[in-house]
Design goal:
By secondary structure, the chain is mainly α. The protein has two domains: 3-75, Helicase, Ruva Protein, domain 3 (Orthogonal Bundle); 95-179, no CATH class. The chain is 62% helix and 11% strand. The chain has a three-stranded antiparallel β-sheet with strand order 2-1-3. Strand 1 and strand 2 form a beta hairpin.
Length: 180
Amino acid sequence: MESFEKVEKLRQRANVSYEEAKAALEASGWDLLDAMIYLEKEGKTVKSAGEKYVPSIVVGEDEGNSDDGCCKGKKSCGADGEKFKEFCKSSWKKGNENFFVVTHKNDTIIKIPVWAMILILIFTFHITLPVMLVSLFFGVRYAFKGEADFEAVNKAMDKAGEYADSVKEELTPDKEQKED
């Protein structure tokens, strides 16, 4: 890593001026970790609100461990990982609290967690969607139930069922026509 790049990295990490970063690097033999420690001892580092300083990150960058650009321009790589982890946890919890329910003439046929239905749709959509569509014409209805608010989705599913019933009525011959 060139001297200018080291100065810039230290300047960004420690929130100091270019001159202070360069002086700290020169005083510590151009070692980023030592320069950061030097600045901290001098009381020149200014941490942003909520920012954490982890010396191993600086060492890793000096050794070239982040050349893949993973953390470029970010204050902390770990924050994104934590957000994703929390998203996965909350999605799993919601997927287990809410259910996809299949009914026929008000009798529940299937009640499975939403996450299971999502997996079924992902892996077998080319079979599942046509079967679901055709089954609407035989009085099968679909709904989501649970702690989440599914009112809008369930209304749309009810409308699809009603539409299937109206199409079925139009295509079904009247009883009078059958007798003739």
